[in-house]
Amino acid sequence: MSSDKENNHALMFHVGPPFDMAYHNNVTNYPVGPHSHNATELYFTLTDLPDVLLGDTILAVPAGTLIIIPPFCVHQLYHEAGEQYERYILTIHDKWLDNVLCEGASAFCYIKEDSMPLLLFPDVEQKRELIRHFDELLSFMDNRTSPDSMVAFFSLLSDIHSLKMKTKKPHSMKVSASQKKVNDIISYLSEHLSENLTISDLAAQFYLNPDYLARLFKRHMHVSLGHYITLQRISAAQALLREGKTVREVQEYLGFSSYAYFFRTFQKVTGISPSNYRSMSIQ
Questions:
Q1: Where is the HTH araC/xylS-type domain (predicted)?
Q2: Which of 133, 11, 3 minimizes the C-alpha distance to 66?
Q3: Chain CA centroid to CA 207, Å
Q4: Quick check: helix, strand or coil at residue 120?
């Protein structure tokens, strides 16, 4: 299945500083499609999100939820142009956190690469404290390496860690029947990324009409099936390159028809060539 041209933006965003903090409460003109980061993203939504993509799951997320998204996890949090979304966003380089905390960084395994996305549901008082911490950290963004900035950062991280530790079991999340079907399709795709699956193949697997399957997928994912498959294959390629696999090995393992096609697709999605990405990742 070939990638479409519906989104010309790079789908892998590189975060530069050790951490970054932002607050937005705006009407979106150009919602961001499925993408990933080279950092952990802590997304505190103050708006209900009806169709959130986190890895291989689509679900509804209520306002007041803290979403922890590990590095390189494909996600999409909002998608409607013309809608107002209010959120705080903290991005953290987990390798930087490892260097700062040394052995103590193991306590924060849930924000590391290869961990699963995590949803936390603070109560009213905990929400108030999180917002206070976020606002305090925002005030230091012009000098984020100052001692006061570091104190604010780790104070916020400590509160989030306490909230995580107090969460005894995961909350049941609202997933509609159609979202469940799309989740099943996503899981199947994740297990067969190296195969050149067509819509007809998937329709036969799930006993659905091909046109209906394509419409159902786009209704919840807000991108076409081909677009999503390309993004997931490149995300898998990034993981393999970080492990030290050669570009040729990754191209063949993921079933790209040629080295040149893989090279072009990787560079289009990430903004960097696979050879340069590999060199930067294994230094």
A1: 183-280
A2: 133
A3: 30
A4: strand
